[in-house]
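REVIEWER CHECKLIST
Item 1: Sequence provided? yes
Item 2: Single chain? yes
Item 3: Sequence as submitted:
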Amino acid sequence: MSLFSAQTLSHQKGHEISLHSHPQGQLTLVLGGTANIHNDQGWWLATAGSAVWVPPGVRHCASYQEQAEIINLLLDVEAGDKAPGDCCLVMVSALLRELAREASRLEKNDDAQKPIRALVLRQLQGHAVQTELYVPQGEDKRLRAVTGWLRSHPGSTDELAALAERAFTSPRTLARLFEKETGMSFSRWRERLRIVVAIDRLVSGQSIITIALDLGYQSASAFTAVFTRVMGMPPRKYLARLQQPGL
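Item 4: Structure as written out by the authors:
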């Protein structure tokens, strides 16, 4: 029986993959560009040097804002395996990257599949991380109406009162839903959303001033200050790190 299948793929700017699921676990490993993976919990941004793990049976979709090079690996998960039980971001080590590349070159039922599968699972256990590049969307339909709209309009400056009207609820209730279902205040959640969108756009080559104004900041310096506080370094340094050879 085949233990996995792996493909090296190139997705063009604007490409979208509709909602679907697999009986296997899926690891989308990004070699270049970015990948947005979305499920019922929220959405993840994977940049070069990272991957998104989706457990078996989890419905998800994907979108690509710019041309992206990925390795998509579908991996059988058995009862005794210690694969992550939830979607998560995975930091890709040099070993995991080369395992994925080797997997994409193997023929079906190759004897090398078993040891590669075991090593991939070991890497998943050790490199799954909590990340600032994840935006939860909540479960309550009122909250999801707001988080979904803001994802499509990340530069909106609407405050809770205006957003609550969209969801036919009160500002107080909406604020409570953000805290309860995302673990963040509304202002922190919107900040997270804008940073994730900004990183996606930085990788695609947009200028800092364009990103800042599009996302509702008054100036490039105001955006840079927020970015630095959240990500621990200014945008240009963060982008340079993503573009280091070997990622």
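Item 5: Key structural point noted by reviewer: The chain is about 40% helix and 25% strand.
Item 6: Recommendation: ____
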